[in-house]
Amino acid sequence: MTDKNSLFTQLSTEIANIEQLLANSGEVTESSLANLRGQLEESLAKAKDSLSENQQALIERGKTVLTQAEQFIKEHPYKALAIGAGVGLLLGYLFSKR
Hints:
Blueprint: H1 4-23, H2 30-75, H3 77-96
Helix pairs in contact: 1-2, 2-3
């Protein structure tokens, strides 16, 4: 799984590449426009692939966490109930202050 710092680095790099391409597009000719378009499409495809990979990793991580939570609730129902009540009281207190 790619960590979030790596994802942000990849996306920042792609955004910087796109900004550079746009900055260099001052002298637009038909061939340079086609080249610019190809480079932009390639950068966007890389960014989409990176996001897609990370989305799948996050979905898998979410499923793992959900399974662990369900197992904890089955093994410790009273603790889970106490935690839920505590979170509910805390949220109720915080929202009643507004």
